[in-house]
Amino acid sequence: MLRKAECLVALGRLQEARQTISDLERNFPASPTLADFPSQSVQRNLHHLKMKVQEKENLPETFPAALAKTLEGVDLGEENKQLSNASSSVGLCMDPLKGRCLVATREILPGEPLVKEGAFVSVLNPGELPPLHHSLDSKWDTRVTNGDLYCHRCLKHTLATVPCDGCSYAKYCSQECLQQAWELYHRIECPLGGLLLTLGVFCHIALRLTLLVGFEDVSKIRKLCDEVSNKDIYLPESNSRVKTLNSGLGEIEKNGKIVETPIPGCDVNGKYESNYQAVFNLLPHTENHSPEHKFLCALCVSALCRQLEAASFQAVATGADSSRLKAAAAPELCPDVTVWGVAMLRHMLQLQCNAQAITTIQHTGSKEGIVTGSRQVRLATGIFPVISLLNHSCSPNTSVSFISTVATIRASQRIGKGQEIVHCYGPHKSRMGVAERQQKLRSQYFFDCTCPACHTEVHEMAARPRWEAFCCNSCRAPMQGDDVLSCGRRSCGRRGCAESVRRDHLASRLQDLQQQVGMAQKLLSDGELEPAIQQLLGCQRDAESFLSAEHTVLGEIEDGLAQACAALGDWQKSATHLQNSLRVVEARHGPSSVEMGHELFKLAQIFFNGFAVPEALSTIRKAEEVLSLHCGPWDDEIQELQKMKSCLLDLTPSL
Q1: Are 647 and 519 part of one and the same domain?
Q2: N or C: which end of the chain has fewer CB within 10 A?
Q3: Residue 105 phi/psi, 5° resolution?
Q4: What is the DSSP-derived secondary structure letter of residue 492?
Q5: The model scores a pTM over 0.70
Q6: 449 and 519 co-located in one domain
């Protein structure tokens, strides 16, 4: 009955839940079979459930209205007549060096939504698991992956999934999602499941793209393939001068005359829609891929085409009945398979530069669940035609968040009129140095980054960032140099500080320290709190002797100490350690970064649990302000912050 009441509360059937709780309270004392049952635990759970019912009954009076008000800001406002799924403050332009790009048509404020686009196609990442060691005493494989927890169509988090009848892999959040997926693409993918998992996500996306457009109109692929092969395509790398316009048209000089040419992906009216035409016109960079990569892509597509022919794909795709399946399987009756193969190969080549990782925030924390942390994980891979127009910067002015398969791009800082709107493809100035960023961007995206962050670091020959720097053991000044490091401070007291040390020696010390920190974190996760604290304090003393005060490892140590103290209920010490960790996060990622928002959320929980009301309210407001730049009002952390703030204000109305 207790479990039934918990389920009814979770479902929102509060009247039934209240009745079940009442029945349980009435019958529990009189039941002779429960004499040895831990009654205190039941009573505690009953009290908790009653509080939950009361809380949910009070929420409808205020929460929907407040939620509706906050969701007003999610809409993109006035319709953009040139660019679908974008705010009217965003314009599409053509640059002679960068190609297509998005610019601000007016001043944009931090937190303002700029693009809200559903994935044209997305495929759930299966997740990686180490192979099981089979033996006589081996157990069932019960390990859980993303494929078990998220709908394979809409990516909704789902604990009780509806599996496909035909395969052991695809799972959905509802019968409706299963049916829609089956009709759109899964009836073809189902028998190919093992092959698709072997060939990888990119190959799977390429197939699903052609399936989606194929069921709509197979001739579209043939027409677009013919257009690509028959007409001259203007490439951004060309030396032709292009005049930047906001009408979806570029201008080129041809035979001494100015000729208007549509920006690739736009329709005849110059509008860029989030459709298959836009997807098809994303650059495949065929000339930049290595021969080995192109060969492997072609091999994957060839294997798929063979399987499609064998499975009578042509008959299924055109809706033929079962009596025609056998005849349609012959290669000579499947002339369009070659066209599908050409389209799939193009999509596979496009994906290296245009695939977008769909991420989600997974919460972590102590076993008691009093304080939770979070980490970003890659959930799926998708294609977003409008978002693909954004160019890269190692110091972006936007951030992206996801709800299921819908991506929202927000301004993370003020963007001036005419300024380019950019986001980060992965290499970020706060996560890696300029040389590593340049190498990654060149190898995957085929360009040399000239963003302001790279320009500054290259021309100023910036020193190693603070979160990676070593310091002098005598005076705590930064160490400088290449192979041999010396103190950067010219004078230490009355005499010069002459300390010097080899970089490889300090690097070896850092590696040993990181191993010790890893051991402490293992003790912490196992609930061995006191040994973990002692280990972390020893690591802290060692770190402070040769690492800068804002080094990442020192931040990890302070964060671990904060977790351990929180688990012991020492909220004051926990807050002190977490504030030290915050300084490291701010130095590396900036005061308005999403990483800073997650850390402020943790600090707000610490103050809330320690009932430090003024500090909690102040931190909650800061966390809300930072997270609202990157996430929508539906974000779990923002909603939790609002609940904490409401609770504190109810308890202390004078504040």
Answers
A1: yes
A2: C
A3: -90, -10
A4: B
A5: yes
A6: no
